[in-house]
Amino acid sequence: MHFPFLFVSTGTERKMKVSFKMNLLLELLGFLLLSEMLFCIAQGNVHYYDFVLKESNFTRLCSTKSMLTVDDSFPGPMIRAHKGDTVYVNVYNQGRYGVTIHWHGIKQPRNPWFDGPEYITQCPISPGTNFTYQVLLSSEEGTVWWHAHSDWTRSSVHGAFVILPAEGTTYPFPKPDGEQVIVFASWYKEDVETLMDEALRSGGLTTLSDAYTINGQPGDFYDCSNETTYRMSVDYGKTYLLRIVNSIMNTDMFVAIADHNLTVVGWDGSYIKPLEVSYIMITPGQTMDVLVTANQSPSYYYMLASPYFDGQADDFDKSITSAIFQYNGNYTPPSIPVYPRNIPGFYDVGAASFYTTKLRSLASPEHPVDVPLNVTTRMFITVSIGMMRCPNDSCSGPDGNRLASSLNNISFANPKLDILEAYYRHISGYYDTNFPDKPPHLFNFTSEDLLTDNVTISDQGTRVKVLNYNETVEITFQGTNVMNSGENHPMHLHGFRFYVVGTGVGNFDNVTDPLTYNLVDPPEANTVPIPKDGWATIRFVASNPGVWFMHCHFDRHMSWGMDTAFIVRNGNTEESTILPPPAYMPPCETDSLYGPRQSMFQKEE
C-alpha cells in the first residue's frame, strides 16, 4: 500500500520516504479508508510530488522583490505523467496566507474534492499546514498546467503539467527530436496581493503588469534584462515540440519565432489537425502543443510574445517579452537576433479571429470525437463588464460605483463555506440554485452606446446551475459592450472538456447561426475565447458528478464576479457517483488573503 502524503522532497519526483508525523494523521486515516477504491481507480502508474510554498526573492527589471513560489522557482516545477496515471501532490504552505492549487485542464472524474478553486471545492490551505491532492488523469493527453486558484497568487504559483501518451502508444505525429516547455507569465514590481487588495477595496481599475516573461525572464526589451533572456538551443534540421502555457494574468498574446513556421498539433490537452501558421494567438488559461523545425540558416532568432487587445479602454501592458531561438554550431552570431516580421500588432482583431477559427479536432480512429447532437439543456449567457452600486458613491469606479463583471447580470460572490461541502453535506444557506439560463433583459448587446443603467447593473449573489447526470448541455456565450467595455473573454470550465461548435461576431442569431455549427470535427477545449462583441457556442455532456467552477480566465474579471458554478447530480450507479471526501479537508476558518476578515466579494450571510 502506498502513502503518498508521507514523504519530503524538493518538488521533483522521487521515491517515497515514509515519515510518520502527527499532523498528517487525518490524511493517513482518509487514504486508508479509501485505499481499495483508489487502487481500482488508478489505471496507470502512480507518481508523487511535494510542493513547498514559500516566499522567495527574485530580481527583475532592476529591482528585487519577495513573492510566493513553489520550491523557489518561477515558473514552478513541471509535473510529468502518462495518460491514465494518478498523481499525488502534497502541498506544504509555508507562506503568509492561505492558498489552493488547481489542475487546469484535468477533468478529475468523480473527484471534485481535489479540483482546487477556493470556496468552490475547498477552503484555502492555511499557513503552516499541508494538504495532499489526488489528481486522476483520464482522457487528457498533451500539455495542461497547474496553478494557484486563490486571489491572484497564480501570478507566481504556476507550472506545466505534461501528459504523455499512454504506455504502448505514441504521438499522432512524427516523434519530435526534442521538446521544451514555454511558460508565459506576468511580472509586477510590487506585491501582487497588495495591488489586488487595493483595487478590490477601492472598486477601481487594477494595476497593470510591468512586464511579461518567457520561462521567468522578461527578455531583451526591458531594463536590466538582456543578460538573462531565456535561450532555447536547437540543432539545424531537428524538430522540436513546444509545450506552451499562457499563465499571464489578464492579456491574450500573439506568439511567433522569426522566419520559422509553427505547426499547432494540440490545444488544451487534446490533439487537433496539424495547422501550419506563422503565429499563434493564445489566451490566459490556454495551452498549445506546437512543432517547429530548425530549418533556417544557423543564427539567433527572436521568439516573441506580444499582447493582443480588442477592447476600448486600452488598459493593458503594451510591452513585449522575448526569448532567443538559438542554433548550435560554428557561425558568427548576429549583433541583434532576427526579428519576426509577421507578428500581428496589438489591436489586430482579424489576425486573432482568423487563427482561432482554423482549429479542428484530429477526429481520427485513435483520437475520435463524440460531439453531442441531442441537446437537452440550452443556456444563453451574457458576458459583461459593469458596475455595482456603492453607498454614497464612495468607490473608485465610474460615478463612484464599484467595477464589477457578470454572467447573465449575476456577479458571483464567494460563500464562507465551499459550495462542494455545502452541497455534499446538505448544508443550506451558502448558495442558491437559480442561476438563470438567459439574461434578465434582451437588448442590443453589442451596441456602441450602451450605458450602465438598471438593465445592466450587476446583481451580486452565489448562484449556481444544477444539472442532472448525463444532461447534454449547450452554452452560447454572448459578449456585450456595456460601458463600452467589450473585449475578448477566455471562459474556462472546470471538470470537463467541451466542443467549441461555433463562434461569430455580433449578436447571436438563434435561427441562422446554428446553421454554421461544426458538428463534425470541432476542437475540444477547456478554455474558449469569446470574441469582443461576438459569441461562442460550446457543447458537453454532464457526465462528471460534482461541483465545477466556470469563470473568465482574466483574473481581474474573475475577481470582479465573472463566474458561476455547475452542480452535476449523481447518476444511478456507483460509477456515476461522486467519490467520498478525504477524511481531512482544509477548514473554512480563514480566507486566502484577508485572514478572518471577509472579502468584499464574499457573500454576506
Automatic annotation (TrEMBL):
Keywords: Apoplast, Copper, Glycoprotein, Lignin degradation, Metal-binding, Oxidoreductase, Repeat, Secreted. GO terms for molecular function: copper ion binding; hydroquinone:oxygen oxidoreductase activity. Binds 4 Cu cations per monomer. The keyword Nucleus does not apply. Its EC number is 1.10.3.2. Its cofactor is Cu cation. GO terms for cellular component: apoplast. Coiled coil: none annotated. It is found in: Secreted, Extracellular space, Apoplast. It is an enzyme of class 1 (oxidoreductase). Residues 54-166, 179-330, 435-571 form the Plastocyanin-like domain. It comes from the Eukaryota. PANTHER family: LACCASE, MULTI-COPPER OXIDASE. Lignin degradation and detoxification of lignin-derived products. NCBIfam families: laccase. This is Laccase. It comes from Quercus suber (Cork oak). The gene is LAC14_8.
